[in-house]
C-alpha cells in the first residue's frame, strides 16, 4: 500500500504507486520534441589561456601535507592555520566558561525582597 500527502485535508491517504512517488500531483516532464542537435565543445577546442584553467596546486599541497615534520595537518600551512586554531580554541573555552557561569547562576535560588 502506498500513501501520499493530501493537500486539502493535510493527511496521509492511500494512493497508487505513481501518485505516491510524484507528490502533489507533479508528474515528470517528458519532452515531446527532439532535442536540438549541437556540436559538443571538446576540451582540445578550449584555449589553454582561459582564466578558469589555473595552475594545478594539488601536487604542491600533497608535498606540503605529507611532509613528515611532526605538525598536525590542521596546522601545516603556518600562521593563518595557527590563528584559526587558537581563535577556535579561545571561543570554545570562552563559550564553555560562559555556559558554566550561566548554569551556576540559574541554579542559585532567587532572593526574596
UniProtKB/TrEMBL annotation:
It is found in: Mitochondrion inner membrane. It comes from the Eukaryota. It comes from Melopsittacus undulatus. It holds the Pfam family COX7a. One of its GO terms (cellular component) is respiratory chain complex IV. It is a single-pass membrane protein. The lineage of its organism: Eukaryota, Metazoa, Chordata, Craniata, Vertebrata. This is Cytochrome c oxidase subunit 7A2-like, mitochondrial. Belongs to the cytochrome c oxidase VIIa family. Its main location: mitochondrion. Keywords: Membrane, Mitochondrion, Mitochondrion inner membrane, Transit peptide, Transmembrane, Transmembrane helix. One of its GO terms (biological process) is mitochondrial respirasome assembly. InterPro entries: COX7a, Cyt_c_oxidase_su7a-rel_mt, Cyt_c_oxidase_su7a_sf, Cytc_oxidase_su7a_met. SUPFAM superfamilies: Mitochondrial cytochrome c oxidase subunit VIIa.
Amino acid at each position: 500500500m502506498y500513501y501520499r500527502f493530501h493537500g486539502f485535508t493535510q493527511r496521509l491517504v492511500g494512493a497508487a504507486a505513481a501518485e505516491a512517488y510524484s507528490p502533489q500531483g507533479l508528474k515528470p516532464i517528458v519532452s515531446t520534441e527532439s532535442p536540438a542537435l549541437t556540436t559538443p565543445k571538446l576540451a582540445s577546442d578550449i584555449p589553454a589561456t582561459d582564466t578558469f584553467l589555473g595552475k594545478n596546486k594539488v601536487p604542491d599541497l600533497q608535498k606540503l601535507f605529507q611532509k613528515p615534520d611532526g605538525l598536525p595537518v590542521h596546522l601545516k600551512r603556518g600562521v593563518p592555520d595557527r590563528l584559526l586554531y587558537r581563535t577556535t580554541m579561545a571561543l570554545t573555552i570562552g563559550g564553555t566558561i560562559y555556559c558554566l557561569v550561566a548554569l551556576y547562576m540559574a541554579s542559585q535560588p532567587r532572593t526574596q525582597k
